[in-house]
Automatic annotation (TrEMBL):
It comes from the Bacteria. Belongs to the bacterial solute-binding protein 1 family. Residues 1-23 form the signal peptide. Gene3D superfamilies: Periplasmic binding protein-like II. This is Sugar ABC transporter substrate-binding protein. The keyword Metal-binding does not apply. It holds the Pfam family SBP_bac_1. Keywords: Signal, Transport. It comes from Streptomyces dioscori.
């Protein structure tokens, strides 16, 4: 579908001036109001997937924007089906002003539907100055920058109980094979090595992506993410074979394959950091720390720690990320205030608000690491920023939702099937290609 061209409304405000910016329309600065609260009287509606503690923490960012500008804010939680919810609101004449989009594929869909306004000159300037190019690329469609990545996830972290590893006498491994060997030593000490959240198919895509990025390399990763390389490629079969070594080893997985398929993500964290530990390690993103801290009272860095997902074979250690990009809908009712909000989100000041309360990483390299509340989060954030353009966005989030983001279908289901029976990587690769081809064609 051809993307309908839209005209960028001037969105520069006194807020932009306070950030040292100029008007984005080429003339003098545009004021949205008077006094110290330039957007008083305006309201923006922001939609996003967040709920619970994440929504509560994002509200602090919204409140800080209100304090700075006078604009009121309303947040609507969409749940996981962002595309469906937002599309319905647009059709009903009730489009939100800003959407926090969690998937590259959805951002691209929104742009192709003609729903989005390109970012203002002020926001683009901040992205150019404060972000690695990779974040700009993931926020762009057909050469226009639509998405401002505010919140990121570091999905190349393996979390562990220091007590469990100490009891087994093992240290954080430096290679994938060493990680499996360390896991076997942990299992000999009485705990399973890994808690795997197989009930949630998205966690299995993350396992695959880390193995594939390290083993096949970034160029192959990009080609597979764009479906320029087929899933039947030998590199995919090799990665599935590597992953299958873990999935089929009953010593390594808490409850075996059946137990993993009955464990969701929060349950996988509980099996390591809950009151009755069943495993020593759990792989997932930096957000594991939030669950371990908030639900099980663990002190990050003492009761819960992480090591980087290790390199596979001769490859480099992977850095897979995810993130939420702020976009402005063209049918929103407050376009100037909405764009001013994105200009605010592009500043280190806005990121610091959430960083201070935890459960947050920023791709903004100008954010002072001292803003984060603990050394482990600072280490994770530094790793993400230092990775620069070698970061690769979650592959399943780049795919059409029918393949990479639907419960019980596509990649999620097929990798669950592979966890259940990892004996035939070639057959799994063929099934993945069949599902991918249909989703990309549709």
């Amino acid at each position: 579908m051809m993307r309908r061209r839209t005209t960028l409304l001037a969105s520069c405000t006194a807020l932009a001036l306070s950030l040292g910016a100029t008007a984005c329309g080429g003339g003098g600065p545009v004021s949205a109001g008077g006094g110290d609260k330039p957007l008083s009287g305006q309201t923006i509606n922001v939609a996003g997937v967040w709920s619970g503690s994440e929504q509560k923490n994002f509200q602090k960012v919204l409140d800080a924007f209100t304090e700075k500008t006078g604009a009121k804010t309303q947040f609507t939680s969409t749940g996981d089906n962002v595309s469906t919810v937002v599309g319905s609101k647009i059709e009903g004449g009730n489009a939100p002003d800003v959407v926090m989009v969690p998937q590259v594929g959805v951002l691209q869909q929104f742009a192709e539907e003609g729903w989005l306004r390109p970012l203002s000159k002020t926001a683009r300037k901040s992205v150019d100055a404060n972000y690695a190019d990779v974040w700009k690329n993931y926020g762009s469609v057909d050469g226009s920058l639509y998405g401002l990545y505010f919140k990121a996830a570091h999905k190349s972290t393996v979390w562990y109980s220091p007590d469990a590893l100490d009891e087994a006498g093992v240290e954080a491994p430096a290679s994938y094979d060493a990680m499996l060997e360390a896991g076997r030593t942990v299992s000999e000490s009485g705990l399973a090595a890994f808690s795997v959240a197989g009930q949630d198919g998205w966690t299995l895509t993350d396992w695959f992506e880390n193995v594939y990025l390290s083993q096949a390399g970034p160029e192959k990763y990009d080609a597979l993410a764009a479906h320029e390389t087929k899933w039947t490629d030998p590199s995919v079969v090799a990665a599935l074979t590597t992953l299958g070594k873990l999935f089929k080893d009953k010593e390594l997985i808490a409850g075996g394959q059946k137990g993993a398929l009955n464990t969701d993500f929060p349950g996988s964290v509980e099996k390591v950091f809950g009151p009755e530990p069943a495993a020593g390690m759990v792989y997932e993103g930096d957000f594991v720390a939030g669950v371990a801290k908030d639900q099980f009272g663990k002190k990050i860095g003492e009761d819960a720690d992480f090591f980087p997902f290790p390199a596979v074979g001769d490859g480099k250690a992977p850095v897979v990320s995810g993130g939420d990009a702020a976009v402005v809908l063209k049918d929103g009712k407050s376009p100037k205030a909405a764009m001013a909000f994105l200009e605010y989100l592009a500043t280190p000041e806005a990121s610091a608000v959430w960083a201070e309360v935890g459960g947050f990483l920023s791709p903004n390299k100008e954010l002072d690491l001292a803003s984060y509340g603990d050394d482990i989060t600072r280490e994770t954030a530094k790793s993400l920023v230092d990775a620069g353009d070698s970061v690769r966005f979650d592959m399943s989030d780049q795919a059409p939702a029918a393949f990479g983001g639907t419960k019980g279908a596509g990649e999620w289901k097929l990798l669950q099937d592979f966890l259940r029976d990892p004996s035939d990587p070639k057959a799994t690769a063929a099934a993945l290609e069949k599902a991918a081809a249909k989703a990309y064609q549709d």
